[in-house]
Amino acid sequence: MAEAVAEEKKSAWKVLGLALTNRKTGFMLLFGFASGLPFALFLGTLFAWLTEAEVDLETMGIFSLIGLAYAFQFLWSPLIDKVNIPLLRKLGRRKQWIVPAQVLLGTILVTMSLLEPKSQLGWFSLLAGIGAFASATQDIAINAWRIDVADEEATIDILSTVYQMGYRLSSLVGGAFGLIIAARIGWPETYMLMGGILLAVGFVGLWAPNASQSDADVATESELQVRALRKAGELVPSIRNRALALVAVLWAVAIGIVLTFMIMSMTNAPEDRPNPTDFTLNIGPWIIVATIILPALIAGWLASQKKQGKHLLAADEAPATGGAYALDHLYRALVLPLVEFVGRLGWSLVLILAVVLTYRICDAIWGTFAYPFYLGELEYTNDDVAFASKFFGVGAIIAGLALGGLMLTTIGRMATLLIGGILAALTNLLYADMALGGANMQAFSDTVGFTYLITQIPEIGDPELAKLTITIAFENLAIGIAGAAYIAWLSSIVSKKFSAVQYALLSSLTLLVGTLGRGALGEMIENQGYYDVFILTTWIGLAAAVLVCFEWYRESRGKAAAGIVAPEAGERVPAE
């Protein structure tokens, strides 16, 4: 028995070593960096530049619209899955979107560096908006690329971990380092440097490997999927087209509302602009209902009709032509990914959505209130918080990701997901102690010698900073483990055939639930204080861990039914 365990561990380490030296892993680190850098530059560092340029806060509010591009990226994900870009399709199914997006982002950043924010704010905001959409599009394609190229060496677990490492490193480069560089060489030069980095990444990305399945095979498979819709045993076209019409109307209305909101925000006078927070809180949930919930119910009805043998073709029909052919392709792009997802998972989809909506809710919401807590409630200085959260904190989260990747390889995906979820939930109790003064965290820091180490750092040296730093370190270590497992699990439940759409839908839910929960959490902080909030988020995190246990049981009943798209260490991919 002991020899078998030792051999299994040896095999896991071998798999990990092969994965880390794999060419795909190197490009995944690069793409993760390219994915996180625009997010940091458009949604964080940019506000520091605008503040220094004396742009008023009301006008600055327009740039908060940039976040909507990431939250609602699933609205154009079917294009990424289905449409080929003329002249660029030879780069590969995903790279035809990734490389141009990176080049466009680099060009936008360089162009912004040539503008003066206050006097050329119109052009500045337009470029930032286009950049946000390009960045969100890049994210869709990179996530799909990660799922597509995963294999037995570069597993989805390792690729997901390495992706997040690159993403976190870029947040440090675009955030803390960006501020340091700007203080020395200026904002225009800093953004020109960052733009040059993205242009270089776009050039290097040309050599990134494509999926083992050739693009010609993918195109053929896509065409075969469309033709299969006319085979005996498939739903009759009239039923499919009614479902397509309903889903298309729902998506068109949702896209129209988002575009109208953004146009009004960018063209109206400041006093007439709609409020982004109110839009997200009041309209956001209805967009989710229109583009995810109702289409999923329609897809479930279609899957049930087919399973019950209703409204099916009795014999093969001739291949569609003209308008009918276009409708079949649109059905394949917009509805079939949901039909496949619901049909494959059935009622298990409810459990999966419950995990998606709860597992990362604590850190998704907390980011907005972290600085008010550190600076206002705990009364630390900007330099203290920068040291604890940006430098030490980012190091801790990268360490957590590395540990998470190791755990994924050695103990498996679901075990790591459960442990990471429990640890992330319990770290809220550390913040609860900080809200009461941090006596326990200070005592712990003193006991292990961490306080002494902090006092030896030049220009820092405050023993009171030790308890904040060690609290953030524990939280980020847990978030790193949980994040590595969560992205790997999320990637594992989608189908390679529809990876862009299905993953974008799930990841957007994660972003939106955090956005929607901030209003309620902010009100709770105002009324009850931070301590009660940390106790509540602890319980939410533990509830998510319980849901993970149910999901683990579901997957253990049949790996093939779980929709695994890439193996865990030592496993083979089940046939679809």
From TrEMBL:
Identify the Gene3D superfamilies for this entry.
MFS general substrate transporter like domains (1.20.1250.20)
Mode of membrane association: Multi-pass membrane protein
Q: Where in the cell is it found?
A: Membrane
Pfam families according to UniProt: MFS_1
At the top level of its lineage, which domain of life is listed? Bacteria
Keywords from the named record: Membrane, Transmembrane, Transmembrane helix, Transport
Question: Which residue windows are transmembrane per the record?
Answer: 27-51, 57-76, 97-115, 121-145, 166-185, 191-208, 243-263, 283-303, 345-367, 387-408, 415-432, 468-489, 501-521, 533-553
Q: Spell out the family assignment given in the record's similarity comment.
A: Belongs to the major facilitator superfamily.
NCBIfam families, per this entry? 2A0125 (TIGR00901)
User: PANTHER family from the xrefs?
Assistant: MAJOR FACILITATOR SUPERFAMILY DOMAIN-CONTAINING PROTEIN 3, SOLUTE CARRIER FAMILY 33 ACETYL-COA TRANSPORTER -RELATED
Protein name per UniProt: MFS transporter
Organism name: Qipengyuania gelatinilytica
